[in-house]
Amino acid sequence: MPFAQKLFPFLEKLPIERGEKTRLHLISSSGKETCLSFRKGRMLCFSRMKLDQSLVNMARDEGATLVNRQVAAIRRKEGSWKLKSGSKYYHAKTIIGADGVNSLIRRSIIGPLSEADLGICCGYSVRNLEKEDIVFKFLAHRKGYIWLIPRDRETSLGIGAFETSNSVGLRQELDTFIRRHYPQAEILSKWAALIPNIKDLKTFQTPLAGADWILIGDAAGHVNSTLGEGIIYALLDGELAARAVVEGNPKTFDSQWRKAYGKSLFLGVKLRKWIYTKAGLEFYCKFLKLQNALFP
After folding, report:
1. Contact status, residue 234 vs residue 83, Cβ threshold 8 Å
2. pTM here?
3. Within the chain, what is the greatest distance between any pair of CA atoms?
4. Which domains does the chain have, with CATH numbers?
5. What local confidence, expressed as pLDDT, does residue 278 receive?
6. Which of 209, 236, 243, 266 could cross-link with 254 by S-S, CB 3.0 to 4.6 Å?
């Protein structure tokens, strides 16, 4: 979104293919549609894999060393962390868990996210929809939505449910939507994944940093509970975590993220049940349209 580009100007300069859109359509579960038109700025639609690879390349250009191996276990030993990968071991003074919703680092230090704080999504990479606007279609009988995000040469078309207990038939619902509204879509590949979706504020009471460790992004559960958006929080987390490590006190990350955007995440948890009612969704769409008009 435009505000994310203002926070992180490098996003606009990334040397990767992207779609550039100025309109976002929000469709409530009852079918009422709201169109947000960005007069100043536009939305940049990247491939997640290409965006992630660009971030890795930026880190390497700044001097980071990439060890492309899977970590199987971690433990503290003699004042440092010992990481096991295959038959090899690595040592680190400080460890940052940026390893996703099933974070090994989180499981090893404070325990995993509960099943109640998880959601699930699935979708396709498709072709022939690149000229469409961005669309979010909220679901009628479960908390979640279908999205269409056109990129340069292909489009992300997916569906998310924010409660794993109500995810039966998720892909079938997406397939029906595609047949009805976008029969011209040519499927290139498919995917599915768990996502964090915090439903209990008590989850955020658990510290996410200590004297020599930090959890960020999905591993921290930092995802907006109403829309499931997490990339902006991951980027903010990375910046705050880096600052805490450079200053020699990783533990301060826990107070810094709460101060910077904790209220936003907490509010999402409080509003999620109401927003996914018929009246709540329609009000939310109107609110976003008004907010866009006042702060384009």
Report:
1. no
2. 0.91
3. 61
4. 2-49+116-197 (3.30.9.10), 67-113+199-282 (3.50.50.60)
5. 66
6. 209
Is residue 150 a contact partner of residue 21, using CB atoms and an 8 Å limit?
A: yes
Q: What pLDDT was estimated at residue 59?
A: 94
- Measured CA to CA, the distance from residue 196 to residue 125 in angstroms comes to 22
**72: burial class by Cβ within 10 Å (0-12, 13-18, 19+)?**
exposed
Q: Give residue 104's pLDDT.
A: 97
For residues 47-75, give the mean pLDDT. 93
Inter-CA distances, 22 with 14, 66, 135, 147, 239, Å:
19, 36, 12, 16, 28
Predicted local confidence at residue 182, as pLDDT = 97
Tokens encoding 7? 């926070």
Q: Tens digits of per-residue pLDDT, 64-114?
A: 999 999 999 999 988 899 999 999 999 999 999 999 999 999 999 999 999
- Sign of the dihedral through C-alpha 90, 94, 100, 102: positive
Which among 121, 134, 248 has a CA at the least distance from the CA of 193?
Answer: 121
